[in-house]
Amino acid sequence: MSCVATPVSIVTAMTDGGLPFGATVSAFSSLSMEPAMVLISLDSRSKTLAAIRESGRFGLNVLGADQEDLATAFAGRSRADKFHGTDWRTDCGLPRISQSPAWVASTVAGLVEGGDHVVILGRVDAAESIVDRAPLVYHRRNFGTHLPHSEKPLEFLS
Hints:
With 158 residues, the protein is mainly beta. It has two helices and twelve strands; from the N terminus they run βββββαβαββββββ. InterPro entries: Flavin_Rdtase-like_dom, NADH-dep_flavin_reductase, Split_barrel_FMN-bd.
């Protein structure tokens, strides 16, 4: 699957005790327009997944091409306080990473076990994007970005 380019995001959650959790994911997708839904996938041992199960909500911070350092900082389980030194604030009761080109706040609509991961279906409560920022993508185990060939949308997408 490393040959498939994917967007890089940080999924966040807040426990009932007010502790922020976050994890870098490349498994994120739009799921439905009516109602607006997204899906993400997290390792079943993830502390962020445990916080999402507890709170029933998650935030999705879609990263920009200049945020590779954040993607690396929130990846893996080795760092105890991933938010230390990270510019973030609470939005819709969820941790929101500053300067992320897109933000989605969701309520859990379902959890699906899938091998060693859990797919989380989320109903979108709020969303915001900054159009003029290039995305951070992951391809062949490297970070990069996507630059469009043209600013004109494709006929079948518009």
